[in-house]
Amino acid sequence: MKGNGLGTIQAPFATLKDTFETVPSHIGFNIEVKYPMLDEAEDANIPLYSFELNRFVDRILQEVYDHDQTHPDRNIIFSSFHPDICLLLNMKQPNYPVFFLTDGGTSVMADRRCNSIQSAVRFATSIDLLGIVTASQPIIEAPNLVKGIKETGLLVFTYGADNNDIENAKLQRRHGVDAVIVDCVLAVRKGLQQAD
């Protein structure tokens, strides 16, 4: 069967509710909230009035609250590359940690809060987020960045294909990265356990 693609929807997308009902409640969720930045919307010809941010965030939070009524034991965190989504998620609820996703300065964005790890840290601390999730490449190239980030009180997570290399995961762990997001979970976990 062919997967969904631009102009070829083969099957309905799973909803957050469907996913909550399917995945066992002992498995936590990192709910990454996707919403285009203004420059991204313009580049993709998406109408800027397509969906109001407050309503968008409220709908997601309502689904999470509804689920929490029957499964209060599930661990949930929120993350987003969109700084205003992070701000709204953090202001509208006190129960779930919010992380600001950043590509760590590996590409230029119109919103200056998104253009570097330093900008991401400044933004995350200014609105009292729990941490940042950055592309791993800058951390691997300059692992001492982790110390400076952690001195602000933020947690540091990383993502990216480079994290599937066990040596990169070990390097980040040695320098205090709190979580390394990987695709090859079993292989990286095994490699880290062997290092212990």
Automatic annotation (TrEMBL):
GO molecular function: glycerophosphocholine phosphodiesterase activity
GP-PDE domain location: 1-192
PROSITE patterns associated with the record: GP_PDE (PS51704)
Keywords: Hydrolase
UniProt name for this protein: PLC-like phosphodiesterase
Record Gene3D superfamilies: Phosphatidylinositol (PI) phosphodiesterase
Pfam name, any one: GDPD
GO terms under biological process: glycerophospholipid catabolic process
